[in-house]
Write a structure and sequence with these properties.
One of its GO terms (cellular component) is ribosome. The protein has four helices and 13 strands. The chain is an alpha+beta fold. The chain is elongated and about 65 Å long.
Length: 194
Amino acid sequence: MAEVVQVQKRDGSLGTAASRRLRKTGSVPAVLYGHKQENQHLAISQKTVESILRHHSRIVELQGDVVETAMVSDLQFDPLGIEVLHIDLQRVDMNEKVTVTVPIRFKGEPIGGKQGGIVIENAHEVEVECPVVAIPDFVELNVTSVGLGEHRSASDVKLPENVVLVTPGETVVYHVEKVKGEEVDETEEEGEEA
């Protein structure tokens, strides 16, 4: 379910100085764009922005001066990565398909890690296409069976219904590397090959 976000239209003054003044009043500047409509410059309260971050909201229902369904497409943070300086919102139709980036949640402990291998997470997210109403919070990859010298690709990620992988399937997202210079027990290696 989309989070309801109260928005106000910003007056004609735009730019860095106007944005700074707006933030001093406890609001965050935002822009709403898409669907071949004119861009709308908005203000959202800091508390609402914190709620969006806390709930990892992707789809929001805008209320107030503008009534639209939108996707949070980008958040710009200060150099310390603490304060949100600006939000980009993209108009969406709840029936349309969108391409979004979602985090990968690795599940399990790999066999190769228990055998002394070095676990490397090559990617922490994948790009997927799905209906707006079906955007997953994360996708899962079970890594329990990954042995020494083995890897898992983006195509191994478990996707929910109506979600299609956009990231090339052969992209390596996880692997267990053999430690260089260390002898690996041959019986373990033979067990892996069988």
